[in-house]
Structure formats: structure tokens, C-alpha cells
Amino acid sequence: MDIGFSVKMWTKAAISFLLLVAAKGQQFSSECPTPNGYFADAVQCDKYYKCIDDVLTEKLCPDGMAFNDLNPRVEKCDFIFQIDCTERPELQPAQATDVCPRQNGYYPMADETNCNQFHYCAAGVGNLITCPESLVFSLKTGTCVWPEEAGRVNCASEKLVNFTCPKTSVDTVEAHPRYADPTDCQYFYVCINGETPRRNGCSFGQVFNSLTDACDAPKEVPECADYYTEYFENYFATLGDSTGRISADVIAAAVASGFKVPELGERQRIHTPANTRRGTTRAPSAPALDAGDTIAFTPAPAEEPTRTRLSRPRPSGSQGRDRLRSRPSFTTTTTTTPPPPPPPAEDYIYYDDATYYDYPEEVAAAPAPTPAPTTPAPTSAPRRVPVRRTLIRPRS
User: Fold this and answer.
1) Looking at the whole model, is its pTM more than 0.70?
2) What is the DSSP string of 134-170?
3) CA distance linking residue 236 with residue 218, whole number of Å
4) What is the count of structural domains for the chain?
5) What are the tens digits of pLDDT across the range 138-150?
6) Which GO cellular component terms, listed alphabetically, does the Swiss-Prot or TrEMBL entry include (predicted)?
């Protein structure tokens, strides 16, 4: 019975192992698994196959990239660090350049102690990129991360920053205390859990205030009151030698730091005889007067009297209302007196059912329009439509 029990246990273990392998989804085939799709090579990470109507075609990703076989309907190559090539470790021969081990990808500096810089390579051309303050380049993700997340031997926090977090008692309330950078007023250190230092900085124009543990204006920190003075003095002193364009960020930082921004120089403008505005002419200069000449003043014309708008009295009864609904025509008369100037553009005239305003001396009555020919009404009598009524029989 012991031997049979052992055989059964071994059989179960073998079946479980086979099921595990099958669940892993690793399949090998020398033909197209499906008539159409994209499928990874079994041993080479940057090689794949394209199947169209059961026709197999071998393809290769660009150097420095690997095939992503997540979706067989999508043809996609990603950077090598983004693909798990554990089961397909082989790659095509590298096509290295001066700073790029391969044609494409993100690669660290040759100096292993240079942790915060790396090269981004595209088609063999390398571009130097620097990580933000206190971050290092990660070989796993190709991005800038905190030193403890990168896991690089020569890139620990203690080796990157020249600062050691002070030992504090267990009763310290602050979990991540801040300390001023002893060499630079703009920066400070945050000790994560009181042990791991991370260097941070204030905005341009501010310094770190140890009393408030926050960024503040330089005038509020006596030991850093003149931190930006030399920089702003040199900037504004050499402004005239440059293109003359002033940076808004520098002005804002100077004002925030309390620096007295110098006044701009007087602007110079050129006047030429043709320096006139379009559509205007220069006024003629007044002639010179002799000692015996006199000046005659012409009185200004009197202000035009305000026009009084007349309204006819509202008649009573329906007869009067019907009469006023139609506007009567006036007879145009010709006089030798010139017409007065027209009313201003904003002088509108409104009419209603009972009143209207008119200026017969200004507006000539328009001739009555010629009536359009009308079709005479038919002489025949209109057709009568019989009205059908339901017949209701009386009940007997």
C-alpha cells in the first residue's frame, strides 16, 4: 500500500506540474498559430513573426527594442527594459555608437558614480539628460527615481549627498524633519523617517527658513538676506548689452526676494516728416503776427435749439383710432429756404397706434406706390358644401 500511495502522489505532482506549464501559456510552433497575427520568437526577444493568410514572415525590431507579444493582433516593439526577456534572452548583435551601447534606449553614463545623468539614444544619436535634484537614473525603469528605489550600488543616498541626518530621539513628533543645507541657502534636506537624506530646493527668489521649516523671502532670514543680491546686480547691469528682453521670472524673483529693481532707461523714439498717422494731416502752423496787428474773434455759432417733437392729441372713440392708423400724405412744397441739417444718427422717431411725429419741411412725402394688378374675383357663385347631419330616428 505504501508503494501505491507513493505512485499516486507522484502522479498527482506530475499532473500539477503539467497543468502549471500549460497555464503559463508558453506554446511552440513552426507554423502560424492562427491565419493572421504577430507572434514572438521562442528564444530571441527582438525577433517576431508576421502571419497573413497562414504565410509566415520573419521580422526584427530596431536595435535596442524588443517585441511585445501581449496582443497577437498588434505589431509593437518597446524598449528592452520594458519587456520581460527572461524566457527569450537572445538579442540581435548590438550596433553601438560613441555613447549608445545600442541604437535605441536609455543608458547610464560610462562613469558608474555619475548617477543622476543618462543618455537617451534614438537611431544611434545620444542625448544627455540630467535627473532632478536628489534623483538618480534607474536601470530597471529607464526613469529618474529616488536612490533607494534605483538599487544601484554606487548611487546610495549617503554617497550622493554630503549630509548625514542627525540622530533624534524616539519621541520626536516630526516623522520627516527638515534641515537647512549648510552650504546653500536655497536648498534643504528632508530626512525620510529621520534617516535617509533627500535634498530639496526652494523656488527661485526664496531661501529656506529654519525657524518655520519652509521657504521664505531672503529678508526674513538674516543669514541669507544677500543670497541673490550679486546675481540680480549682475543681471540688470548687463541687461543693456543683451537683446534687451527681460525675463518675467527674473523680475518676479527679484521682487519676491526684496531686491530693488532698477528703473528702465529712457526710451528713444525717432521722428521723421513722414511720421504721421494714417488718414490724418498735420494742422497748418499759425502765421506770425506783427506788433500792430489785431486779432478778430468770431463768435461761436449759437447752440442749435432743441427740436420740439409734436404729438397729435389722442382722439376718443373707435373712429379716431381708425383714422390715425393710416399715415396721411403731405403735399411737397418748394421753398427758397435751405433745409436745416438732418437730425443726429441717434435721434430715432417712434410711431404707435395713436401718435406719430413728422417733419414735412425735412422729409419729402414719397410718391404713392403703383398698385399691383390684381386678379378679379370670379363672377360665379361659390360652391356650397352640403352639411351632412346624422339622422336620428325616434324610438317607438
Assistant:
1) no
2) T-EE-TTTSSEE-HHHH--GGG-HHHHSS--PPP--T
3) 19
4) 3
5) 998 999 998 888 8
6) extracellular region
